[in-house]
Every structure is written in structure tokens, then in C-alpha cells.
Amino acid sequence: MKQTGRTLDDILGSIGKRSPDIPGSTASILAGLMGLSMAKMAILVSNHPINDPCLRAALEKIDRLSCDLLQAAEQDRSNFLNYMEVLRERCAVEGKQADVSAVREAESGATAQPLDAARLIVEALEHLNEKSSLVDHSVASDLHAGAAILNASFTGIMMAVKINLEPDRMADMRQHTAGKRAELAGRRDTAFAALKRAAAQQGFQY
């Protein structure tokens, strides 16, 4: 079942158990979607002409990012479930070790998707920074709260990536993605610092 077809109770129950069927990376992506929705609400509620092209473009990008993040969450969960299946099938069968190449392939898939989701989260933070001036003071707290959730989402995703990359068998992927991970972290830091300054001008502190 798609995540959008599940109740919040079901999602929370699927995360908070010993053997979750929603991994931490997917949970972080779903949290980011909630943050982005809060920011969208703040822009919608602000006082703009209904046909303002700047407003329309801002909302269209949020909708695109939301759609892409939801697809990323679905694929991330699918990759995680595949990884768990590989481990179940190949690990400790009559004392034999797992097929390292199969595990590595599944692990790679479970790492690449969160990295792409992290990129989308960074794009969202950059977009909110660019559009924060569109938001009225009365709802600015919602935009910045949404941005704070997106920032936490990025952190959770990157923690999941880090733990996936720690095994020795992932050394080449760890090296291959080092530049991308550093770039995303730098862009996140820049966008979030600017959002914090914008919030301070409105009298809010992260």
C-alpha cells in the first residue's frame, strides 16, 4: 500500500517496532513532506493576488517537490524491503555467510535513493529561502517551522546514508558519493543559515 493510503496511526505503528517495515530514511522523507506542506500553507494564506505569477510559480515548485519526495519515499521503502529480503534469504543459511555481492547490491540501492531524496530536501530549503519574503508575518512561523522540519528530515536521511556506507563492502560507494554528500551538506547549511536570518528579522528563532 502506498504511504498516502495509510493512516497516521498505521505509519507510526510501522515505524515504532522492533522490525519496522518503514525505515528511518523513509520516515525522515515523510517528515520532510509534512514540513513542505506547512510552508505551502503559509504561502497560500499570505495576502497575494490570486493570479500572482510569482505565487503560482512558488506553489507549482512546492507541488513538484512534494510529488517527487513522495515517489522517493515509496522507492526508498521498496529498496529497504528488498534489502531485508536479501538478508533473510542469504544470511545464516545453515551457518553459511550471506552472498556479499547480493547484499552489497541491495545496500547500494537502499543508499542511492535516500541521497536523491536529500537532494530534493535541499532544493526545498533553497526554494523556501527564496520565497520567504512572500509570507505574511502572521504565518511566517509556519513557513519557518516547516523549514526546521525539512532540515531535520535532511539530517535523518543523511544519518541513514552514513550508516549504510559504513561496511567495508561499501568502500567504493562511500568514496564515489563523498563529493555529492559534501555538496548537499554545504547547500543545506547555506540555505538553512539564510532561513534562520530571515526568521530572526521576523522575530523568530530556530
From TrEMBL:
GO terms for molecular function: catalytic activity. It comes from the Bacteria. Residues 8-167 form the Cyclodeaminase/cyclohydrolase domain. This is Cyclodeaminase/cyclohydrolase domain-containing protein. Gene3D superfamilies: Formiminotetrahydrofolate cyclodeaminase monomer, up-and-down helical bundle. Pfam families: FTCD_C. It comes from Neorhizobium galegae bv. officinalis. SUPFAM superfamilies: Methenyltetrahydrofolate cyclohydrolase-like (SSF101262).
